[in-house]
Design brief:
The structure holds three protein chains of three kinds. Chain B is 77% helix and 2% strand. Chain B is an all-alpha fold. The longest helix of chain B is centred in the N-terminal third of the chain and has 35 residues, at 2-36. The radius of gyration of chain B is 24 Å and the shape is globular. Chain C has helices at 48-56, 98-108, 113-127, 142-154, 173-190, 201-207, 225-230, 235-240; strands at 4-12, 23-32, 37-41, 63-68, 71-72, 83-86, 161-165, 194-198, 210-215, 218-223, 247-250, 252-254, 257-260, 263-266, 269-270, 280-284, 289-292, 299-308, 312-319, 322-329, 338-343, 349-352, 355-357, 360-361. In chain C, 44% of the residues are buried. The chains are: A alpha+beta, B mainly alpha, C alpha+beta.
Chain lengths: 362, 294, 362
């Protein structure tokens, strides 16, 4: 099965909810829709499911136009943020329910439920009722029900959002394995970049109803095509610095000068945005090439192994992620160091022009 | 191509509804319109009179009186039932065994047919055999709804309150139940008074259901017929002859089809207009309380 | 402001009972100093919300006392405890403007306009709400609404404590960073006693000076984020804090060395002998494990899986049936499927029956 959207737009009351989206998902792939609340994730999913029709554009399944086809006639399954199960049915009956509706024989139901419940580690809980389960188990049940149909398209709308942190971590680790065993197209919406990176697969970065980039998740992180994608994939948030290149110098106002190394001399004179991630902003000089900048401490957060130091650099808010425990006083002026080899440089239209080169350490 | 097909299908689906509406509303309405512009002296002979009936009616005292009575009745009903309904809803328990008891006793009056309600109160209020009438008379209160217009009005109003306040209560109760506990806790922490809680949390959250309650009660009370017909038959005199009763008298009692048709059209337009005014005003208040002040 | 003492607090939703099973909160004693930032951390159902409700006065504890500044307030209702609380979902007064919302707690306490106005304007500035002061609160985004709830707590200078019940649940990741650091900043600036309930370790660790980890109605460990990270007193704390959690693996202990699957490791501490019937395990954080080329010093392990999550990689390795998570640097190059696993002995903890034993430094 292959799902394809061609130039799909939806317009509600003169306002675009989704604008000119073209995407193609292959069978057996996990595709993550990543973006803030209201960026269009749920609208896009409803469109893929056939719950909504696009204002313009077409949806194809295996090359066949299914744009007007109702959801009942498509082979899709959906899992929501809320744990939706039949409260008065056992876990077994909950999982079996799609097959009961399809009037499948008892023997086949038994086999399929056994298989899918093993996959989701529910095999010891089949006799229980949903309210006797933990949140994680309830969501596993909902997921099992989505999988047992053998749907070609499984849509998951922030399925882990209502779970505890640690349960999320466990399910996140298991999900890619579960997905790879079924061969359906999986579409998974989330607001959290760390979740997308842990799940792997491909990611669609969404912003205000538009796709800003689509590709393997790790590529979006390491080579974002534009500033918005870079921001969407960054948790902690990305640090940015607007600079101007002129007369063979690259400057932020007259505060900071960026040495023209690597590909920088080739760039035409213009305004650029330099972006770098918090773990590439240092409290100590690590090499000669690093640029020193004076900053005022806003607040420091310590996780026990790492520290997030929020700083103010000439009115800009940056975050330093440093290993170990650092707790500088509020309003203290400190020196931070930028590593030019880790810079992403975006042009005036926020498109990537220079990315850091990966130099693996063995 | 596909989009077009879908559209045509959609029209086809609407057709049955269209037919039902045509037979149940549009065609009867058109007959009424037809009667309202003609006069007849029997024998199925009709004469074109144009807008005459409307003109006569609008200038007639009889219509004015009935209209005034109707408006007063609705105003009194709303002024009592809405606050009373809110108060009862606020006093109802939120959990425990009291909830089903309250809900069922509230729902009971709503289940009784209009004419039965009328009959109940007609007997209830009789001085000779009715519990209410007899008790009042025994207490030395001069109460007789068949002779005293004020007693007749009070009887009908009390009956309507008894019959319909439950509806307001149930709607408000549903609105109140949808308020999360956190709001009450936050209000406690903020040191809000009981009135502030009502004014800033409960009332805003009930606004939508209150709008529905006011509209329903207005339309219903404006069209009241069965109960006063059963209790007083419009009397004593014409004191409880509301528009609907007057209309029936005119159409069936006097067989004045033309004026009756004109009157029912005006009646219809008045309800439509007032409902629309209510709706816009109330939803504007809602909007204002969310938009205004900026 | 006040220091808070919880004396022999226990709570059972079924009322007083002989059966310890009935208690959602087992007996606990805590003292919180004036102006401290504390977090109650644990999975759902651990009793953390019960404890919070006891402090706020929404619940009356079955046993024990709550003291504010040594004064017993167990019997006082919420409104007389002079506390503020921020809930999971933003609670705002829909019909009021932002200004009126912030002024509400002061107005209810009969303060005059002259006193209220400057205070509201000052606070709105700190919270970044000054532009919206005269808009209706219900038209703002979730994060602004949550700021208003927070503001209603901060507006009274005299509050004894501000309580937070998972306040960032409905906030997008990017904005979480902003709100979290702002909260920390406000704490440092105003010095209110703050108590924060969450299941999210990042929120708890970054917010609090002291984190109380709860499990099944009991306090498992209370300590600084650093102590919880470096020296978890219980294997549950090791698992619950850190992402991924601590590696815990059965071993044999002989004075200053441990044996895992026949491989010996030297420690920098020496331990007294434990009984043969007791369960002995070694616990080490993924951050304190490193990988070296095969056949160098260390445990010979097989690489099962590498997850590139951007900032670093999580490598899962196995020694027979014992598995370990290792955090490897961003650009490390994993070639082949075998390597040597090295322990940072300074951060290696030994657990007997799930409890940390400290041993003696050599």
């Amino acid at each position: 099965m292959q799902l394809e959207l061609r130039n799909v737009s939806t317009k509600v009351g003169g306002e675009y909810h989704l604008k000119d989206i073209s995407l193609a998902f292959d069978a057996g792939t996990l595709n993550i829709l990543l973006g803030a609340t209201l960026s269009g994730k749920t609208s896009l999913m409803r469109l893929m499911a056939g719950l909504d029709q696009p204002t313009s554009g077409k949806v194809y399944v295996r090359g066949k136009d299914v744009t007007g086809v109702a959801v009942q006639k498509r082979n899709v399954a959906m899992v929501y943020q809320q744990f939706i199960n039949y409260p008065n049915l056992s876990v077994y009956e909950n999982i079996a329910s799609p097959l009961r509706i399809a009037k499948v024989g008892k023997k086949i139901i038994d086999e399929k439920v056994a298989k899918v419940s093993r996959l989701l580690k529910l095999d010891d809980l089949l006799r229980r009722k949903p309210q006797e389960l933990s949140g994680g188990q309830q969501q596993r049940t909902a997921l099992a029900r989505a999988l047992i149909k053998g749907a070609e398209l499984v849509l998951l709308d922030e399925p882990l959002a209502n779970l505890d942190y640690k349960l999320r971590e466990e399910l996140r680790e298991e999900l890619p394995r579960i997905f790879s065993e079924t061969g359906a197209v999986f579409v998974y919406a989330t607001t959290e970049p760390s979740e997308a990176l842990l799940l792997g697969g491909n990611t669609v970065s969404l912003h205000e109803g538009r796709v800003t980039q689509f590709g393997p998740t790790i590529d979006l992180f390491s080579k974002p095509a534009n500033l918005i994608t870079a921001r969407t994939l960054s948790d902690p948030p990305l640090n940015t610095l607007p600079v101007t290149k002129f007369n063979n110098r690259m400057l932020y106002k007259s505060h900071v000068e960026i040495p023209l190394l690597g590909r920088l001399p080739d760039l035409p004179d213009d305004d650029y945005s330099i972006a770098f991630r918090p773990h590439h902003l240092y409290l100590k000089r690590m090499s000669e090439a690093m640029i020193s900048v004076k900053a005022k401490v806003v607040v420091a957060e310590i996780t026990g192994s790492e520290s997030f130091i929020h700083i103010d650099v000439a009115g800009m808010r940056w975050v330093v992620l440093a290993r170990g425990i650092h707790d500088p006083d509020i309003d203290k002026t400190i020196e931070v160091f930028l590593d030019p080899s880790k810079f992403y440089i975006f042009d005036r239209n926020e498109q990537l022009v220079v990315a850091p080169e990966a130099t693996p350490i063995v | 191509m596909i989009a077009k097909q879908v559209n045509q299908k959609a029209w086809f689906m609407v057709l049955p509804v269209f037919l039902v509406v045509a037979f149940s509303a549009i065609i009867p309405l058109m007959t009424v319109v037809n009667y309202s512009v003609q006069d007849t002296f029997g024998n199925n002979q009709f004469f074109w009179v144009g807008m005459d009936w409307f003109r006569d009616l609008i200038h007639s005292d009889r219509f004015h009186d009935a209209f005034l009575r109707q408006i007063s009745f609705s105003a009194i009903i709303l002024a009592i039932e809405i606050p009373l309904g809110i108060m009862i809803a606020l006093a109802m328990p939120k959990k425990g065994w009291g909830v089903p008891v309250c809900l069922i006793s509230m729902a009971l009056p709503l289940l009784i047919p209009w004419n039965v309600v009328g009959t109940i109160w007609q007997i209830f209020g009789r001085v000779d055999i009715g519990l209410l009438g007899h008790t009042l008379a025994a207490m030395g209160i001069d109460y007789n709804y068949t002779q005293d217009p004020i007693a007749a009005w009070i009887t009908i109003i009390v009956m309507d309150i008894w019959h319909w306040t439950s509806l307001v209560v149930l709607l408000c109760y549903a609105g109140l139940c949808s308020i999360p506990d956190a709001y009450y806790q936050a209000a406690k922490i903020d040191g809000a008074s009981r009135f502030s809680v009502f004014r800033y949390i409960q009332l805003p959250k009930m606004q939508r259901v209150l709008l529905i309650a006011v509209l329903l009660r207005f339309m219903d009370s404006f069209m009241i017929y069965t109960e006063p017909f059963v209790i007083t038959g419009g009397g004593p005199g014409n004191s409880t002859t509301f528009m609907s009763i007057d209309l029936v008298k005119m159409a069936i009692g006097q067989f004045d089809l033309g004026p009756a048709a004109a009157m029912s059209l005006i009646y219809f337009l008045v309800i439509l207009l007032l409902s629309w005014v209510f709706f816009t005003v109330m939803s504007n208040i809602g909007e204002e309380s969310s938009n205004g002040g900026a | 402001m006040a220091h808070i003492t919880l004396k022999e607090i226990a709570h059972s939703y079924a009322g007083e009972s002989e059966n310890p099973e009935d208690f959602a909160l087992k007996k606990l004693n805590l003292t919180w100093r004036d102006g401290g930032a504390y977090a109650l951390l644990g999975p759902s159902g651990c009793g953390k919300t019960t404890l919070l409700n006891i402090i706020s006065g929404l619940l009356h504890p079955t046993r024990g006392q709550v003291l504010f500044d040594d004064e017993d307030i167990t019997g006082l209702p919420t409104e007389q405890r002079n506390i503020a609380q921020i809930f999971q979902f933003p609670v705002i007064y829909d019909t009021m403007t932002v200004f009126q919302n912030l002024a509400f707690p002061l107005k209810n306490r009969g303060r005059n306009k002259k006193e209220i106005e400057p205070r509201v304007i000052e606070l709105a500035k700190i919270l970044g709400l000054e532009k919206d002061l005269h808009t209706k609160a219900q038209h703002l985004t979730a994060d602004s609404k949550q700021k208003i709830s927070l503001g209603r707590g901060l507006i009274r200078k005299s509050v004894n404590a501000i309580l937070f019940d998972e306040p960032l649940t409905v906030i997008d990741p990017q904005l979480k960073w902003e709100l979290r650091s702002q909260l920390k900043f406000l704490h440092k600036k105003f010095g209110f006693t703050m108590i924060y309930v969450t299941h999210d370790q990042t929120e708890a660790l970054t917010f609090a000076d002291e984190v109380i980890v709860m499990y099944e109605g009991k306090i498992v460990q209370a300590g600084t984020p650093e102590a919880l990270f470096e020296k978890p007193e219980h294997t549950f704390v090791g698992y619950f804090i850190g992402s991924p959690g601590m590696n815990v693996c059965a071993c044999e202990l002989q004075e200053n060395r441990i044996v895992i699957e026949g491989h010996e490791l030297l420690l920098n501490r020496t331990y007294t002998a434990v009984k043969a019937t007791e369960k002995v395990e070694v616990g080490i954080r993924p951050e304190h494990l490193s990988l070296a080329p095969p056949d160098t010093n260390g445990l010979p392990v097989k690489i099962i899986r590498v997850d590139d999550i951007g900032r670093h990689k999580i490598v899962r390795v196995a020694l027979n049936d014992k598995e370990f998570n290792v955090v490897a640097p961003e650009l490390s190059d994993m070639t082949g499927d075998r390597c040597s696993l090295q322990f940072d002995t300074g951060h290696t903890n030994i657990y007997v029956n799930d409890h940390l034993i400290s041993g003696e430094r050599m």
